[in-house]
Every structure is written in C-alpha cells, then in structure tokens.
Amino acid sequence: MKQQTIVIKLGTSVLTGGSKKIDRARILELVRQCHQLIEQGHNIVVVTSGAIAAGRENLNYPELPKTVASKQLLASVGQSKLIQTWEQLFSIYNIYIGQMLLTRADLEDRERFLNAQDALKAMLDNHIVPVINENDAVATAEIKVGDNDNLSALAAILAQADKLILLTDQEGLFTADPRKDPNAKLITEIETIDTALKAIAGDSISGLGTGGMGTKLQAAEIAGKAGIEVIIAAGSRPNVILDVAKNIAVGTRFMPKKTPLEHRKYWLFGAPPAGSILLDDGAVNAILNQGRSILPKGIVEVKNNFSRGEAIDICNQQGVSIARGVSRYNSDALRQIAGHHSQDISKLIGYEYGPVAVHRDDMIVK
C-alpha cells in the first residue's frame, strides 16, 4: 500500500458514543487504528469536534442560557480537556501530537493559508500528529453552522491529503432519511454531488453536534474539487479507519475530480467573499464553457465594497454564484470600468492592472 496522507474528522457523536460525555475507550480504539497506519508509513491528521461536549462534562452539566456566549464558555473549558485526552491516548503509543486551532479567517488570504500549511507540513515531517479543531471560543459564526465538516475539508487541502474520512453516527448517506424510511438504502459511491443529492441530506441524528449530513456533503464537494477522495462512515464500525485506508468498501465514497484544481487556488475555498459581480450571459458562457477570464465588458453590476486582491463571488444576472475568484481591481474601479472595453481601463480610472477583472488562473468554477 502506497504512503497516504489521511485526514480523519470525528464528530461529537463519535467521540461520546452517543452519551453525554467523552468516551475515552472509543477514542483509544480510534487512536489504535491511527497508530497502526502510522507504523505503516502513512501520515495522519485528526480534526476533532467535541470541545463543547467536553466542557459540559467538565463543569458537571451546568444549566446555562441558550446563547452563543454559553457555547463559547463551554468550548473554552472543554478544549483543554479534549486536547489533553488526545495527548494522553496517543502517548500510549509514543506518538506526539500538535494542536492547531483554526477558523476560516485563518485561511482567507493566501499568505495565512501558506503559513498554516507550513506549520502542518512541519508537524507531519517530524512524525507529529496534528490535532485540529475550530476555535469555537471566538468563531461565533462557525458555531452556528457547525463548520467542523467544512474545516476538515480545508485541513485536507492544507495537508494535500489523499483521503478525508468523515466519521459520524451513521453508516453513510442513504437514499432517504433512515430514521423515517425503513426502505432507505445506503449509497455506496457517488460521482457527482447534485441538487437532488443535497435534498436527501438531513440534520445530525444524535443532536450532540452542530453539523449534519448537509455539511458533510459540502465538505465532500470542496475536497473532491481538490482531488481528494472523501468517505462518510460510522465511527463505531470495527477497524473503520484501517479498512478505508485499504480501499475496502465502507460507508459512502465520494469520487474525487480527475482533474483537480491547481494547488495555488486551494486557499480560495477558505476565503469568504468580500463582494460579488454580476455578469452578462456572454461572460457567463465564456467562463463555464470556454475557460476564459472575466473582462470588464461582461460585468453588469458590482455589489459591496472590496479591495484589489480579495476573493469575490462571480454570479450570473440572476445572482446565482457560478464561480469564485480574486479581483484584479477594487470595487470602485470595477464600477467605473464595468461594461467597457479593456483598452479603455487606463482612460477611465487613470491606471490599469491588466486587461481582465478576474483572471482564469485566480478563479474556481463551482
């Protein structure tokens, strides 16, 4: 078996075994499997949920107001206990870990993306297992949407991983909600994530975590575009991590894109759009079907204010996002040159950064 870099995301329901507290025996079993893969020469990255659950347990399940601040409090208390648990259990096998607390903000510009990537690579090169979690104590938006699934996709991109394993309380993605439909069948392999598939995805079954199957589909879509294979599987399945590493059919497997994005575009996945531009039908066709850059002539509207070099959403005239890219001009300049030919840029704004508004090399098509 060739050496692989495998990112393993563990949902709260997996770490607690469906109970209210962290299940050390369950985690130790997962650590044992990680150790076995490390012994075989593979690189392992762990993305862990469970800080809020660990905080509740550590504070003896306090009655707190249902506010974001309460979740931040629990995450702050629980994070130290959670990382301590990982450290103690990996140390049984003489494996060192390194903690990385990330949010999307840490990945929203290329320089910070590369810094995070360098730190991750240094750990892997020195046989240290990175243990990544969302910085829930400050990341209020991420707590609301349960973004550790998406964070794991970004971590897989940072690590240039071969596989991303999303371990959860279900066997995988089913044709219908197995809680309601006894005839629901497991979907074992998925080539394309479409709207019909997204409609199937439901919420977290256990109610312990903040993400559901919908965020796992988002993660699979992001990682797949970067050429990373994604598997959703049950964390309780015996030897689940080892079996996935051996390419044994487990859970739901999402096939990666055969022509993944160039590495330098990866950071765009973590960049929240600062604004958006609306394009005419000709420009939309040029992007989707001809692999072209965006010329000022095709821009019909500029929304919000943003600086040169920021990520923006690229939309059709109905406002539907078709791509994301890095703007060569700020929003004020784009408003002045929108609808005009490229040769008129300098005359209109007094300077130019080239003939295109967004270059194809700085764009990812959705």
TrEMBL record:
> What pathway does this protein act in?
Amino-acid biosynthesis; L-proline biosynthesis; L-glutamate 5-semialdehyde from L-glutamate: step 1/2
Main location per UniProt?
cytoplasm
Q: Which residues form the PUA domain?
A: 275-358
Q: Which residues form the signal peptide?
A: none
Q: Where in the cell is it found?
A: Cytoplasm
Name of the featured protein: Glutamate 5-kinase
Q: Which organism is it from?
A: Orbus sasakiae
Q: Do you know which InterPro entries this protein is assigned to?
A: AceGlu_kinase-like_sf (IPR036393), Asp/Glu/Uridylate_kinase (IPR001048), G5K_ProB (IPR041739), Glu/AcGlu_kinase (IPR001057), Glu_5kinase (IPR011529), Glu_5kinase/COase_Synthase (IPR005715), Glutamate_5-kinase_CS (IPR019797), PUA (IPR002478)
Q: What family is reported?
A: Belongs to the glutamate 5-kinase family.
Provide the residue positions that the database annotates as binding substrate. 49, 136, 148
